[in-house]
Design a protein that fits this description.
Elements: H1 3-9, H2 21-25, H3 44-52, H4 61-103, H5 109-117, H6 130-145, H7 148-156, H8 159-173, H9 180-200, H10 213-222, H11 225-243, H12 254-269, H13 282-287, H14 289-314, H15 322-338, H16 344-365, H17 379-397, H18 411-428, H19 435-447, E1 452-456, H20 457-469, H21 471-474, H22 481-489, E2 503-507, H23 519-527, H24 531-549, H25 551-554, H26 561-569, H27 574-592, H28 603-667, E3 687-693, H29 694-699, E4 703-706, E5 716-724, E6 727-734, E7 742-747, H30 748-756, E8 761-763, E9 767-770, H31 771-781, H32 794-797
Antiparallel strand pairs: 1-2, 3-5, 4-9, 5-6, 6-7, 8-9
Helix pairs in contact: 3-19, 3-24, 4-8, 4-28, 4-30, 6-22, 7-9, 8-10, 8-20, 9-15, 9-19, 11-16, 11-28, 12-14, 14-17, 15-16, 16-17, 16-18, 17-18, 24-27, 24-28, 26-27
Length: about 800
């Protein structure tokens, strides 16, 4: 497969590649005899070294550190995925319980939420037959290596479907967050998504700011390991130092300040002065001299705090993850293309909509959700953080007006720093592209025989189902590779229960791309390399391996290649002996080809080996530093996992006590179950059945459509039973038959969610019910089962983003 085909599969324009040695190495190479020699080795040198070292077993400090780093990155990727799933479960339970509270009815959570509270069993194994494994392996290789398909799909799905798809895309399909090939493929997908977003959005002000599947994608991307690492290193210390001052009140909203002021006066004096009425407008509060005197020093201090945050962020430019900077670069490029007359301020506001609104400010407002703080911020620090986030967002947006009138008082902060922030936002975009390195990574991938994807059955089935739903938009042509694969794999299987949702290793390969059997041959044919070029690179690579494997040789200077080869060939280690003999023969072949010269001690190769070793020495320090940084990130992610699990336990406790309370109302005293205890409540008595005739339900408008023949309808009736609170069984009967023709289980919160989502009808196979009217019937029929009083502690369980901050964007 040639490089044009590789790049074309990404939808990437073919870059102009320099064939000069200086393009890759930054230096001119000469032969030992003094004749200038233009090497054809450019960036493929690094590629070949990567490939050559895949099967090398070198046990030095660097190798051990690199192994530790790989393991750490793998654990971070896996843990990030677990956290994403947990966060989705928490949001799900939060919304379900809220719906139930609104309806003032109780729900026994056992059946409905059990799947969100139990542990899945992610055992690995092959649960698909060989044919399905091959079909899905082809399909997911195509999706991974041609990101445009996923990019289109992410734009087509609804907000209710996007989270499950993002789990597969961000944490499975491109789940190796620190592996360049998958990261770069993911970024090309973002390029396609953003390009389409700019093309279809007509309102400049809503670009990247509205809550869409695309904005959810961008937020999810920032929650991966590199983004969390940056947030912790840059924001954690600053936020922790602020929240230590629990009593520091930075409120500047005049109305709130006024109310706090009169409350304090009343507490101190026992009465309220006549000139300070209890209820005033915001304008009256803002005009009050005492309020103004309170606010003035707060504005000064708030500006100082915001400036300290801003300075920390600006000084962190080099720490910003490459992927986030590259996305900023695409936003700048797309803004210029879509709006040729856009000013620098407009361009920077668009970059800021991503960098601040989607990335930094959510962590500033709710640092405990990002595990940036040890304790939940108190009331006053929380408000200060919210104001800081508003100031930073206003600075990035540079609005001509403030959404809240009192924020105008902070306009001097915006005016003083707007050029400074513009410079930072534009500097974020100054990163190189990765297309050539992606091409090289694809060579490596095509030469691997064990390219696999760790994926669950439900991730496969859900992605399959979404692809089929949007097949015509994704693959309009019958000759499209995607359409061919979807037609072959057939209909999507249904989702399996959580306990059966096994993880499998899915081998990835392509029907249309020939695997590279011999990397050296592929490099020579595609990059105009000769056999001598390959031989030279392999010889140098072996010498580096030998020096790393023999500590006493590594300490000897100057480097003597002949001595190193002879020492290896005469050791007691069979592997070193084999390599020593091989490299001696390779040196001889290179000399005969006049590539190297023994008379000058193989000067050219000796210099390059020395430079490579110097690079590896520096690399060891870099790797150790990265390990130190990522260990902190891994701990943060694990802490966040524990935090989410504790939230689920609180939900579970709340729901269990709801059940117990409703049990008291219906069957007498029942003992309270504590968190972590098994459910020992007595079995509840079912309510019903209540009988309703077909004619009655039709007359009341509950049945809206029917396939039951007219002459049969008088003999049809329905029995509705509530086996446990919040769960209903509707059974369709035919007069004269003992058994029901069919039964349907309904959950109260399912109906509430359908009503909230404006779903009109409920399909019962033979008939369709009006959702709102069947809900009214159930409420009326089972009204005696009242919702218990909701504890004030419920508010503490809610994990919704800070509503106040939502006005920032």
């Amino acid at each position: 497969m040639d490089r044009q085909s590789i790049l074309a599969s990404y939808g990437i324009p073919l870059p102009v590649v320099s064939r000069s040695p200086t393009a890759a190495s930054g230096r001119r190479v000469t032969t030992g005899n003094g004749n200038n020699r233009t090497s054809k080795r450019y960036s493929v040198t690094a590629l070949y070294s990567m490939a050559a070292e895949q099967d090398v077993e070198v046990e030095d400090d660097l190798a051990r550190a690199q192994k530790r780093l790989r393991e750490l990155k793998s654990r971070i990727s896996a843990q990030s995925k677990k956290n994403f799933v947990l966060e989705r479960d928490v949001r799900y339970l939060d919304s379900r319980i809220a719906l139930l509270i609104q309806n003032r009815m109780a729900l026994d959570e056992k059946q409905e939420v059990e799947s969100h509270l139990e542990e899945s069993d992610p055992q690995e194994g092959n649960f698909l037959d060989d044919r399905k494994m091959q079909q899905y392996g082809n399909l997911f290789f195509l999706l991974q290596t041609e990101p445009r398909h996923i990019a289109t799909l992410c734009r087509l799905v609804s907000l209710t479907e996007i989270d499950v798809l993002l789990q597969t895309v961000m944490f499975t399909l491109y789940g190796n967050q620190y592996e360049s090939r998958e990261e770069h493929l993911l970024l090309t997908m973002f390029q396609s998504v953003l390009a389409a977003q700019f093309e279809t959005t007509t309102d400049f002000n809503s670009l990247l700011r509205a809550n869409t599947p695309v904005s959810r994608m961008m937020t999810t991307y920032t929650r991966r390991g590199p983004g969390q690492s940056y947030q912790k290193s840059v924001l954690s210390e600053r936020i922790n130092s602020l929240i230590e001052h629990k009593d520091l009140n930075m409120e500047i909203d005049p109305l709130k300040v006024y109310l706090q002021m009169i409350q304090q006066i009343e507490e101190e004096t026992g009465k309220l002065p006549e000139h300070l009425p209890r209820s005033v407008t915001a304008e009256v509060a803002a005009a009050n001299a005492e309020v103004q005197a309170i606010i003035a020093p707060r504005l000064t201090m708030l500006t100082e705090i915001a400036n300290s945050f801003l300075a920390t962020i600006i000084n962190s430019l080099e720490k910003v993850p490459y992927g986030i900077r590259w996305i900023c670069k695409q936003i700048r490029s797309l803004t210029k293309r879509k709006y040729p007359d856009a000013t620098e301020f407009m361009i920077c506001s668009m970059i800021g909509a991503f960098f601040f609104l989607r990335f930094l400010n959510p962590a500033v407002v709710t640092p405990e959700a990002y595990m940036l703080v040890d304790n939940v911020p108190g009331k006053h620090p929380r408000r200060t953080l919210t104001l800081i986030a508003k100031m930073l967002q206003n600075l990035a947006n540079k609005p001509t007006y403030a959404k809240e009138a009192y924020m105008k008082m902070l306009n001097p902060f915006v005016e003083e720093n707007k050029r400074r922030i513009n410079k930072f936002l534009l500097s974020l975009c100054e990163v190189g592209d990765f297309y050539e390195s992606l091409e090289m990574d694809q060579y490596i991938a095509l030469s691997k025989k064990d390219l696999v994807l760790h994926i669950t059955l439900n991730e496969i089935y859900n992605t399959h189902d979404l692809l089929l739903q949007h097949k015509n938009e994704l693959a309009a042509s019958d000759k499209s590779h995607l359409r061919i694969l979807l037609d072959e794999v057939g209909p999507a299987p249904p989702q399996v229960p959580r306990k059966e949702n096994r993880a499998i290793e899915l081998p990835l390969f392509s029907r249309w791309e020939t695997p590279i059997q011999d990397l050296a041959t592929a490099l020579m044919s595609d990059n105009n390399l000769t056999q001598n070029d390959i031989l030279y690179m392999e010889t140098k690579s072996i010498f580096v391996q030998l020096i790393r494997s023999m500590p006493r040789v590594a300490e000897r200077r100057p480097i003597d290649l002949a001595y190193i080869a002879e020492t290896a060939a005469t050791t007691k280690d069979a592997t070193l002996v084999r390599k020593g003999i091989k490299v001696k023969e390779m040196l001889r072949e290179l000399e005969e080809a006049h590539v190297t010269d023994s008379s000058d001690g193989y000067k050219l190769m000796t210099e390059e080996v020395a430079q490579e070793l110097a690079h590896l020495g520096n690399l060891r320090e870099i790797v150790n530093e990265e390990i130190k940084s990522l260990e902190a990130v891994y701990k943060t992610i694990c802490d966040h996992n524990n935090y989410l699990r504790s939230q689920l336990e609180q939900y579970k406790a709340y729901l269990q006590n709801v059940r117990i309370q409703t049990s008291k109302d219906s069957v007498g005293p029942v003992s309270v179950v504590k968190v972590g205890d098994k459910d020992n409540t007595q079995k509840q008595k079912a309510i019903g059945p209540y009988k309703f005739t077909y004619i009655q339900l039709e007359r009341d408008g509950i049945i809206v459509e029917s396939s039951v023949p007219d002459y049969r309808r008088r003999d049809i009736y329905f029995n509705i039973t509530s086996p446990v609170p919040g769960t209903f069984v509707i059974a369709l009967h035919y007069r004269g038959r003992e058994a029901a023709i069919l039964e349907m289980d309904l959950k109260l919160d399912d109906l509430l969610e359908k009503q909230q989502d404006n779903v009109v009808s409920l399909d019962l196979e033979y008939v369709q019910f009006d959702v709102s009217k069947i809900l009214q019937l159930l409420n009326k029929t089972f009204a005696k089962r009242k919702m218990p009083t909701v504890s004030n502690a419920w508010g503490k369980l809610c994990l919704s983003p800070c509503a106040e901050y939502s006005t920032v964007g």
